[in-house]
Amino acid sequence: MNDPRIVNISDLREAARQRLPKAVFDYLDGTADDGVTGRDNIAAFSEITLKPRQAVMTNPDLSTTVLGTRLGVPFLLTPIGYCRLLHPDGDIAVSAAAKAIDTGCILATGAGHSLDEVAPHNDRLFFQVYQMGGRGAVERALARASALGVRGIFVTVDTPVGGNRERDLRNGMAALIGQKLLPKILHVPEVLAHPRWLARFLLDGGVPPMPNVTAQDGRPLPAIDVAVALSRANINWTDLGWIRKVWDGPIVVKGILRPDDAKRAVDEGADGISVSNHGGRQLDCVAASIRALPAIADAVKGKTTIFMDGGIRRGGDIVKALCLGADAVLVGRAYGYGLAAGGGAGVRKALDILRADLVRTMKLLGADTVADLHPGLVRLKPDFRVD
What we know:
The strands form four sheets. An eight-stranded parallel sheet has the order 4-13-12-11-10-7-6-5. A two-stranded antiparallel sheet has the order 1-14. It has a single domain, classed as Aldolase class I (TIM Barrel), CATH 3.20.20.70. The protein is α/β, with parallel strands linked by helices. The chain is built from 17 helices and 14 strands.
């Protein structure tokens, strides 16, 4: 993707907005209710300033190891469902782009591509776990993940029900991904205004089912049934024992915002936690992830691997999260905008932007390695609220 006007993630967001029908862009970009948490996920980073060490020459080494897996950069690509709506290459393109910059990705339970299709493109593949389809469906998916060499699983615990995403409701998103033709008429003018997206969508066969959520007879879950499946899919603390019995690799609990829940996850045997509010797409008016991170790091740092996601738009955001206690971060919308804007090349553009930002920030900060990033390199502004 060689457009010289695209120099940051905000530019990619605008390119995605232009290339997608409104309903699809709003699905990617939207948050729950009034979007308070979604906005603060980004804004909170501006309340953290950096304290550089001067007259220090550095050649930063961005590599780190999490959950026994070496990464060339201190971030993984977090799961986004329905990636094939953004571009038909979807999760395959995402996986390949992650490998190209020497890192891994987490495949969504609700991915439009199967584990078998994605695994050959990245040997550092992780898998997200919801209990969609019941325990049998989860056990079948985990057996396949194990056979394919998946490195670990991220068990999402913050979705007992889908968030109130009003942009999706207003746009009639359910009609677009449903099977009935008549309700889709609402979308005809907007879709026809994006002929390249429409052509790719039709050539890809429309909205695919969820191949990683299968019934006992092997049938995948239709995309339109996901909301109902999610309402029956919440994972409780007691479920972690069952998951441990059927999965012998690393387990990360994703969706933690409180120190007591972080401690509970460690007590239940989690190998990692992800400080996350689901990108502001679930319960609105909860803490921005970066605000919740310091207290959680104080509670469990050194006892488990700590990830953080939410609001990452620049390499400096990654640096700030690592200084405040994360071992690595998870990047989501940034690469989603890239996928929508330019397929696999767009994802690579997003990741190259973040990596270049990260190198430049570490050089200016005077940090040689990820291990050099510590709280002494940041200052919280007086109005920074720690939750």
